[in-house]
Sequence to fold (72 residues):
Amino acid sequence: MKPQTIEEKLIYLLLERLERISVDSYWAHRASGVRGALIRSLEAQENADIQTLESLSKLGFQILERAAREKR
Fold:
């Protein structure tokens, strides 16, 4: 499935970044959960709740930020 909208492209970029968090990181497990939820939401696109996608995306970006701080 190819991303159609800017929002979908951003979510796919977020999915790629969350996948790259080191498995040694505390945040890797949380990132995995968010990735799974985002993927399930995208696959059920006709039933996808915009607010859910926004919340998951926001949480994903917070996890990325915290994982990056931990890396320093």
User: Anything to note?
Assistant: Residues 18 and 62 are 11 Å apart (CA to CA). The radius of gyration is 12 Å. Residues 6-71 form one domain.
